[in-house]
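Q: For a teaching session next week I want to show students how multiple molecules come together into a single three-dimensional assembly. I've collected the sequence lines for a complex. Could you give me the predicted structure tokens for the whole thing so I can convert them for display?
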Amino acid sequence: MYLCAVKNADTRERILHRMYGDIHKNGFQGLRADKVVADMDITKGALYHYFPSKQSIGIAVVDEIIKPNYLAFYRALNQSIGHPIDQIKAHIVELSRIMDDENIALGCPLNNLIQEMSPIDEVFRLQLKSVIDGMYRSVADALRRGQAAGLVKENIDPDAVANFYLSSLEGSFGIAKVQKSVPMFRSSMDMLCQFMESLRK
Amino acid sequence: MYLCAVKNADTRERILHRMYGDIHKNGFQGLRADKVVADMDITKGALYHYFPSKQSIGIAVVDEIIKPNYLAFYRALNQSIGHPIDQIKAHIVELSRIMDDENIALGCPLNNLIQEMSPIDEVFRLQLKSVIDGMYRSVADALRRGQAAGLVKENIDPDAVANFYLSSLEGSFGIAKVQKSVPMFRSSMDMLCQFMESLRK
DNA sequence: AAAGGTACATACTAGTTGGTATGCACGCAA
DNA sequence: TTGCGTGCATACCAACTAGTATGTACCTTT
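A: Of course. Below is the structure for the complete assembly, covering every listed component.
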């Protein structure tokens, strides 16, 4: 029955997306993988057919969901020929716009996993670092191109700025999360926009 | 035997400090309270004599260790009559100075707990929020006093700046943690200093 | 010195967690 | 049509986790 074939074909991805949601809510250590699949009317048999261990679920979530999702924007930053500061500011404004109460209360999935897993699981840490590194390089390169094109102040260090930008961005998610406050998050994003604007030549 | 009496007098605090250390390493969900006390040659009897539940251990750690520790500096900020921007910068420089590889790898204890516990435990979240609120108000008030004294630009919003400052600070811990890089943390602290300097009148 | 509270130690336990072992239905290639 | 791989379902399990129940030595109060 081809309906079944279609269903089977994406069982793994359906599981993965639910795991992503549960990790977002409860953290990786709080993830109860068997309960998540039970909630989908799937048994542990299916789960352990696709994933050899709990850790592999977390790694797959980072690798197949979080990483492509986060790097999509930053890759666009590298290919475009617009003003890098405008592009980065547009991204900040977009984030401000789409974040609602629930997303703020749950926090940034990437930041959550970094804080929880980096110190206790080196495999996790390296996967998460590769995502951050990708974002970091895209921003730094965009600023460098901006400098070369005379659009960005020459006396700033693109690497330092990129690092500070990511820190402020993720930190804003973190502080807004404990406050459960979308306005606080937007206020932080406004300040970050002002900071980026100050780099314009 | 008074030796025993002295030992007994601070058993609770000794347990609490070890719990703080283990939570710093493994997170609250990763805390194995019985193993921590066993490591101190103390049994579960003593542990549950002082703490009714695992949650109460975490709350006590926030309330009795993290909160006083973090608010110490910020209270000083409120009582002093120096230049608020110099004081805040001095704090940033001090943080830069004392953070070593291990501390960076483990991250900021306050930030760690915020990211892990805020979404899943409201009691925790409110305790953690009270710490952040305390820091936030001290910084905002210091900036307001600076404005009144003509030391800080009038066109900045002290609340927005205080919020952004805390976000950047905690975010810098988070990003440095996944990078396991003290230089990255120091670079972020330098940028934060520059940002604070830009507020001087 | 009797009584009661404090400060633990020891032993036990229900429920959970992260799996494993096994079976079996189905599609497909030989 | 037979054998084999894929895609699950069911049942089982050892270790762990967060406690509880109970006992007891010591100290203090009366």
